Amino acid sequence: MNLETEKTMSRPEASTALVRKAELEELLIDAEADDEQVQQSHPLVRRPWLLLLGLILVALNLRPALSSMAPLLSDVSKSLGLSAAQAGLLTTLPVLCLGLFAPLAPVLARRFGAERVVLGILLTLAGGIILRSNFGEIGLFAGSVLGGASIGIIGVLLPGIVKRDFAKHAGTMTGVYTMALCLGAAMAAGSSVPLSEHFDHSWAMGLGFWVIPALVAAVFWLPQIGQKHGAHNVAYRVRGLLRDPLAWQVTLYMGLQSSLAYIVFGWLPSILIGRGLTPTQAGLVLSGSVIIQLASSLAAPWLATRGKDQRLAIVVVMALTLGGLFGCLYAPIDGLWGWAILLGLGQGGTFSLALTLIVLRSRDSHVAANLSSMSQGFGYTLASMGPFAVGVVHDWTGGWNAVGWIFGIIGAGAILAGLGAGRALYVQVVSEKV
């Protein structure tokens, strides 16, 4: 086994010893040489539009399996006779699977290559959607597990691909990827109920329709298979992430902001229905809020990378998110759309910044892939507790007012974690070529 050890370091301050500064400059020179080698050996870099198209289509499929369920949850529960606890589990289970299966991503990528894994898991996602919508209660829960697991694995791999092939435009490309992800969520949230009504009020068709974009993405991702990746075809093992405080701050921010996002995906329509909206209206409000995320998901990373660090941006987007959540929960219903817009502006920024932090806190694509696995693995496992807590509190109180405490506690924790994760540092790890 040939080992070449590189240590990633935090950005040098004015008081840093000259020897450490020289070591960092040497590492940066090596990184630039590596990038040049990839530019020469990676054919997709000469055709970035092909990879970009594939990334956008894949990202479009990373939320419909999640956001399509919430507007149809009452219909599904009535049709299958689900209890409130089972309905709550149905909103929590896919998010939990995002975290539990995320650590498999780097293992599979080292064995088969990231591009092949993305293709295979897209087909697995399609299978989960079919299973969820066609085989009763057992299929519903089994398909939800399979869909959540698939999304968790793909979601870990894409930031590393962005870091590898678009390193000089990581912030912008992360925004584009996040924008596509939000668009997929918005389409599913807004159209699942109309699709169900179009097909004789069949919730199965409203959920099962989303197998089509998954298969289309697989077709367009197929050209990525078999491409040569030069230096990046070598497997790397990264050690030390679990001991690095900055890595845990990135992870906590990812998990806590995701918890609020999945509360919105899983429960916002139910909250709004409880306030007097019809299921169609509630789904449209969720869809509209997610559509607004398109703007902030693209703008927030670009703006955040213009400053010396990302701390101010994190505070701003979290404040917008909390304001929108409290408005949707407590404010007069006639101003609902304004609060939904505010919520969308905040959440589009929180998630895109979480992905941007993975890239910015990593010195190279190997570290980015492993930090992505850690932050999404532990983070989404933590995030799943948010929707579960909302369901429990709603059952205890018989209403929605008390869930505002959940919003406030999670939001405050996300701000604290973000203030640490937003500092202009690199995680300190050891990256070994094997």
What does this 3D model show about the protein?
The chain has helices at 18-41, 43-46, 48-59, 64-67, 73-80, 84-101, 104-112, 114-134, 136-165, 170-198, 203-208, 211-221, 245-274, 279-304, 311-330, 336-360, 365-383, 385-397, 403-421, and strands spanning 5-7, 236-239, 430-433. The N and C termini lie close together (6 Å). α8 (114-134) runs antiparallel to α12 (211-221), α9 packs across α16 (336-360) and α13 (245-274) runs antiparallel to α16 (336-360). By secondary structure, it is an all-alpha fold.
Secondary structure elements and pairings:
Blueprint: E1 5-7, H1 18-41, H2 43-46, H3 48-59, H4 64-67, H5 73-80, H6 84-101, H7 104-112, H8 114-134, H9 136-165, H10 170-198, H11 203-208, H12 211-221, E2 236-239, H13 245-274, H14 279-304, H15 311-330, H16 336-360, H17 365-383, H18 385-397, H19 403-421, E3 430-433
Antiparallel strand pairs: 1-3, 2-3
Helix pairs in contact: 3-9, 3-10, 3-12, 6-9, 6-17, 6-18, 7-8, 7-9, 8-9, 8-12, 9-16, 9-17, 10-14, 10-16, 13-14, 13-15, 13-16, 13-17, 13-18, 13-19, 14-16, 15-16, 15-19, 16-17
